[in-house]
Amino acid sequence: MFKELGAMVSLLRNGGKIQEEMKKFQEQLGAITAEGSAGAGYVTVKANGRQEVVAVRISAEAVALNDREMLEDLVAAATNQALAKVREQVAQESTKLAANMGLPAGVMGGGLPGAGA
Questions:
Q1: How far is CA 63 from CA 8, 29, 55, 57, 72, in A?
Q2: How far apart are CA 46 and CA 60, in angstroms?
Q3: Distance between CA atoms of 91 and 29, rounded to whole angstroms?
Q4: pLDDT, tens digit (0-9, with 9 covering 90-100), for 82-102
Q5: Superfamily of the domain at 2-111
Q6: Of 2, 13, 14, 98, which is most buried with the most CB atoms under 10 A?
Q7: H-helix segments, the chain
Q8: Three-state DSSP class for residue 89
């Protein structure tokens, strides 16, 4: 209980610094990227730390197969993989940010975009 109270006091004392750091962190989310692929490279999706898909590549070989349902599944799988990877990177970066500010783990909302802003 006292540990949580200490964390709250720390947050209150450092409110301005924390807001400034969170603003910087939110701005940096666009620079964090990850790729996911499916179907042995038939489909590749790139996403950023804002959970936005920024690129989708579909190989000519995948298009030539003329299998729309399979292609839809591959796009979904590659997108999910890219988003999972980028979420992990954002969580790691938010943990580092919290540690650099002397805050306990988990204070940054698990690294999810928009947390704490």
A1: 55, 32, 17, 11, 11
A2: 18
A3: 11
A4: 999 999 999 998 888 878 777
A5: Nucleoid-associated protein YbaB-like domain (3.30.1310.10)
A6: 98
A7: 2-13, 15-28, 60-64, 68-100
A8: helix
